[in-house]
Specification:
UDP-N-acetylmuramoyl-L-alanine:D-glutamate ligase, Rossmann fold, 30% helix, alpha/beta, 10-stranded mixed beta sheet, 14 helices, 485 residues, 6-stranded mixed beta sheet
Length: 485
């Protein structure tokens, strides 16, 4: 088929384009820009890229048009597609049509940890010989790309014992964001999960969900959609997860938790007892059903990444029959995903990390993990509020506690315009509150001043964490260069 993708340059849509090319289709895609890394990647995958949005991009008419969720109904290509009566769908619809019918979907859902955990699952299943397909919302360091069609049938070669899937796994990040302007439902509701991981539920995407209950309702629908033979691997330490999973339609629920965490009335089948933590990562003992299964290690820092690793181990072992012993070495070799605690450089002995964290919980856990990994020296947090949720006052007070592990907090201008003064995050007020909490904190009106201030504060042995779910104006790369001077 000839498939045309409108707004193809995002990480999810670009990966879909590559996946469709791997499946043998002719793919074209349009967008306003084709910046690195996605622009060159699309070209290398054989995707024909078209700059801008124009009805002419639909000549000759494609067999299918896939519309990105950033598009509005007045997009010229979308308008023309409907005028011509062309088949139109979204990313979830395309995956339903071309991928899920031949695979067993492993869907990683939750407010936090989706990208790292889905990359972990794909990596572990791959190293265990299952040849999984996958579509990851980031760039995994240990896989050749962020996508792959299902190639093998490792699960089929196992004994057909109860609970094991009959089709090869396809790992996908279960986004609760909506699919497209013409289909305002969560993406993960279209994925047909057989195995699901549910990491956490905290209010997010306030531009899509009017209230926390509306947000939770999407997860309730998700767990009710799992088939009776499905499996949910659920975080027992999150009370909302426990509440939601009680409504699951499947008969098999495997709770997981870290040692000494409150588990809200449920008994975890999978338990991790952290053993050692340092500059090279974290080791922990794994227990399943009360029996010790051995010591595991992961190169990432932070208790949240131990939880992510435990969830991935549980899904791979209990969901697809991967022997735990075969996952010890692959877990230790997992080096993460770009923009998740990614070490960009060490100019003059200053470690500069880039991370996607933007929700207060993610900010808190990321900084705590870095502090645990590098207990010496100052920890500087550079933060850009970019997402629809982060830019609003919803978490104004929560951000004060989120930066508890940092010594210095430098706040960038909001990365989103058009919000009224009453609804937007007040970075000046946040800086004042952080100072009262004993931090050195400043809110800047431009990025040049923020970079210069970082240079003045940072010294040999310090850690700089650059936190944003956006591009942050290229601050990350500038910092490495400036700190070298």
């Amino acid at each position: 088929m000839h498939i045309h993708i409108v707004a193809v340059s995002g990480s999810g849509m670009g990966s879909l384009a590559g996946l469709l090319r791997e499946l043998g289709h002719e793919v074209s895609g349009s967008d306003v820009r084709f910046d690195p890394p996605m622009g060159p990647a699309l070209a290398s995958w054989g995707v024909r890229t078209l700059t801008g949005f124009s009805p002419a991009h639909l000549e000759p008419a494609p067999d299918l048009v896939v519309v990105g969720n950033v598009c509005r109904r007045d997009n010229p290509e979308v308008v023309r597609a409907f005028e011509l009566g062309l088949p139109v769908t979204h990313i979830a619809g395309a995956l339903q049509r071309f991928v899920f019918g031949e695979s067993s979907p492993l869907v990683v859902a939750g407010t936090h940890g989706k990208t790292t955990t889905s990359a972990l699952c794909a990596h572990l299943l791959d190293r265990a010989g299952f040849s999984p397909g996958f579509l990851i919302g980031g760039i995994p360091r240990d896989l050749p790309s962020s996508f792959r069609k299902p190639r093998g049938s490792g699960a089929r070669n196992l004994l057909h014992t109860p609970g094991l899937r009959r089709n090869p796994p396809f790992v996908i990040e279960g986004d609760e964001y909506d699919t497209a302007f013409f289909e305002k439902t969560a993406k993960f509701l279209h994925y047909g999960a057989e195995v699901a991981i549910l990491t956490s539920i905290e209010y997010d995407h306030v531009d899509i969900y009017a209230s926390f209950e509306d947000y939770v309702a999407a997860f309730r629908r998700f767990v009710r959609q799992l088939p009776e033979h499905g499996l949910i691997v659920a975080n027992a330490a999150d009370p909302k997860v426990v509440e939601v999973v009680e409504q699951a339609a499947c008969t098999e629920v495997a709770y997981y938790a870290l040692e000494n965490e409150a588990t809200h009335g449920v008994a975890p089948h999978w338990l991790a007892a952290p053993a050692e933590s340092g500059a090279t990562g974290t080791s922990f003992d794994v227990f399943a059903g009360g029996a010790k299964c051995g010591r595991f290690a992961i190169s990432l820092s932070g208790q949240h990444n131990v939880a992510n690793a435990l969830a991935a181990l549980a899904a791979c072992a209990q969901g697809y029959g991967a022997p735990l012993a075969s996952l010890v070495r692959p877990l230790a070799e997992f080096s993460g995903v770009r923009r998740r605690q990614e070490l960009l450089g060490t100019p003059r002995g200053i470690r500069v990390y880039d991370d996607f964290a933007h929700h207060p919980t993610a900010v808190s856990k990321t900084l705590a993990g870095l502090r645990r990994r590098h207990p010496q020296g100052k920890l500087l947090a550079l933060f850009e509020a970019k997402s629809a949720t982060a830019c609003r006052k919803l978490h104004q007070t929560d951000y004060v506690g989120a930066f508890a592990a940092a010594d210095v907090v430098l706040l960038a201008p909001l990365g989103r315009e058009g919000l009224s003064e009453d609804e937007r995050l007040d970075t000046q007020q946040l800086a004042s509150d952080l100072v009262r909490a004993g931090k050195q904190a400043h809110a800047f009106t431009d990025l040049d001043s923020l970079v210069e201030s970082t240079k003045q504060y940072a010294a040999n042995g310090d850690v700089v964490a650059v936190l944003s779910n956006g591009a942050f104006g290229g601050v990350q790369e500038r910092l490495v260069s400036v700190l070298e001077g």
